[in-house]
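Lab meeting minutes (informal)
Scribe: AK
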Amino acid sequence: MSYPPVIVQALILAVSIPAAVFDIRQRRVPNWITLPAVLIAIALNAFLDVPAFNWRTSLEGLGLALLIYFPLYMLRAMGAGDVKLMAAIGAAVGWQNWLGIFFLTAVFGGLAAVVAVVSRGTVRKTFRNLWFIVLSLLHRQAPYEGNPELDVKNVRAARLPHAVAIACGVVSFLLVVAIWAPR
């Protein structure tokens, strides 16, 4: 991990927090937030041109985010806005810092999922669905084809606003690097 310049910190906060608000209210992350953020992040890092923040690290962060998140979109486990949001964050912070944000996002998303499953009383159903997902993937089939409730586009699917977990991951990452990362 490396300490992001203040302008990069401001960018990822300015992108992730409004995206989370939109995701809570409208269950989507608009392109007018994410797509300009990708372009601004690449241009900003090209301008900064320091070892951890340059055009190359920007494209590597963008690429890694797409490599991990795009298959989830293709499996209909995640919306396209979440993919573009993480791509924008990856383009801003580079691949190494993005991995830290990804880890923290996964922790927050996992905690939110556990709370949702327990509060809705769907623990057994969730474990059955997880088993179904594993079997489907082992048979090289998309889980949503055998169970429409596993399709994020289905109105009956249990969905969480992932941009909220992403924003929590971003904020906690910035707190962690402010405390422990060398400057």
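Next up, CB showed the second protein from the same session:
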Amino acid sequence: MGDTLNVAVLVGSLRRGSFSRKVAHAAIALASNSLSMEIVEIVDIGDLPFYNEDLEDASEKPSSWLTFRDRIRRVDGVLFVTPEYNRSVPGALKNALDVGSRPRVESIWSGKPCAVISVSLGALGAFGANHHLRQSFVFLDMPAMQQPEAYIGNAPSLFDGHGALTNEKTREFIQKIVTAFEQ
């Protein structure tokens, strides 16, 4: 492949000990040397002011918006790892999509390959959030990895008390996802 591909990892949960964050760390650890994957925390998505077009037209846009947009512009792709809130994506993640998509002619998302891993405490693996996010990808012009689909359920049973992934089948599955995304 030659050059290293830079991938931004956006975690939909703001909680430091979230299972989505643990899955994101597992994916990063399983990436080949051809992928440089990093959780975007220069500006935590929870610190982005809600998108408001009035702020876009102000003499000074929020600095966190500018920092976030610049960070995402510089990557080759984006991996989203998210829980499900009310059969949808968390508000902070949706706001990050909105902040990055404006002004519309300068969207940071357009043409960026992406993938999504959804994570839940229950058996469904945050299916609703995964598909709701994919609807946004269509509008944002983000080519999304179609297979393998990545729903990780029963997350509390997959990690030890220190946050390390202990389930070998899940490790193999995450490896498959990361390898497919790289390709």
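CB comment: The chain has a mean pLDDT of 91.
No objections, moving on.
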